[in-house]
Amino acid sequence: VSAPAGSAPLPAGGAVREDGRSSASGWGVSGKPPRRFWEGKKQEGVRRWLSSHNHHPLGGVGVCIVVSLEIKADAHVRGYVGEKIKLKCTFRSTSSVTDKLTIDWTYRPPSSSRTESIFHYQSFQYPTTAGTFRDRISWVGDVYKGDASISISDPTIRDNGTFSCAVKNPPDVHHNIPLTELTVTERGFGTMLSSVALLSILVFIPSAAVVVLLLVRMGRKSAGLKKRGKSGYKKSSIEVSDDTDQDEDGCMARLCVRCAECLDSDSEEIY
């Protein structure tokens, strides 16, 4: 049995075992290398590849680090015609906020693949100055609190569609892009009726209750006076003394007024 080219030759008189392998080199009778030969070659190839990448800061291992952002937004938002609507968007970044941070809001109408940029932020606010959202987009977020929300004033049914919020804070630039479906409708009669009913509960019903209580109290008082008059009710000594004190107070007041008039008349006669 001869060894393959490039391998150590079998020594003279090398014996072959019963399992077909040479006791000197480990080659089989068929001349094919055993499995451990290929495993050794594989390990040697890996060692060579690592040695050629020793300049990598991670010790020769080629690793691609991807930093990402986490962005959240409401999946569905419902609004009413003429009433301001807030589109909420929040983000969380592993890097500090810098002047390189950018925020972009886009709009896609229903049953359409065309997207429209409606808001851009980079240190300053840049709402759209054209299209259906002209002068109707306002910034209500705070980048230092991870808030990238905007609001739409005077919304109409034509504003229905899909809105997307994209945030980049280098080196955090890879992220998901959440979508928000906006539905604007007219306020129905039932909604208006419920608002009126709530106002009635909060304002008119407590006022009516106070008026009813006052009327009941006055009615009870008048009924008690009538009952006393019919039954020949006599005042107690305390009530009589109270009435006497009141009469005396009235007499004293009238006397003081009379004295003042007399003094005035005397002074006129002197002059």
Automatic annotation (TrEMBL):
<keyword id="KW-0812">Transmembrane</keyword>
<keyword id="KW-0472">Membrane</keyword>
<dbReference type="InterPro" id="IPR013106">
    <property type="entry name" value="Ig_V-set"/>
</dbReference>
<dbReference type="GO" id="GO:0016020">
    <property type="term" value="C:membrane"/>
</dbReference>
<feature type="domain" description="Ig-like">
    <location>
        <begin position="82"/>
        <end position="185"/>
    </location>
</feature>
<feature type="transmembrane region" description="Helical">
    <location>
        <begin position="192"/>
        <end position="216"/>
    </location>
</feature>
<feature type="compositionally biased region" description="Low complexity">
    <location>
        <begin position="1"/>
        <end position="15"/>
    </location>
</feature>
<keyword id="KW-0732">Signal</keyword>
<feature type="region of interest" description="Disordered">
    <location>
        <begin position="1"/>
        <end position="37"/>
    </location>
</feature>
<dbReference type="InterPro" id="IPR036179">
    <property type="entry name" value="Ig-like_dom_sf"/>
</dbReference>
<protein>
    <submittedName>
        <fullName>Myelin protein zero like 3</fullName>
    </submittedName>
</protein>
<keyword id="KW-1133">Transmembrane helix</keyword>
<dbReference type="InterPro" id="IPR000920">
    <property type="entry name" value="Myelin_P0-rel"/>
</dbReference>
<keyword id="KW-0325">Glycoprotein</keyword>
<keyword id="KW-0393">Immunoglobulin domain</keyword>
<dbReference type="InterPro" id="IPR013783">
    <property type="entry name" value="Ig-like_fold"/>
</dbReference>
<dbReference type="Pfam" id="PF07686">
    <property type="entry name" value="V-set"/>
</dbReference>
<keyword id="KW-1015">Disulfide bond</keyword>
<dbReference type="InterPro" id="IPR003599">
    <property type="entry name" value="Ig_sub"/>
</dbReference>
<dbReference type="InterPro" id="IPR007110">
    <property type="entry name" value="Ig-like_dom"/>
</dbReference>
<comment type="similarity">
    <text>Belongs to the myelin P0 protein family.</text>
</comment>
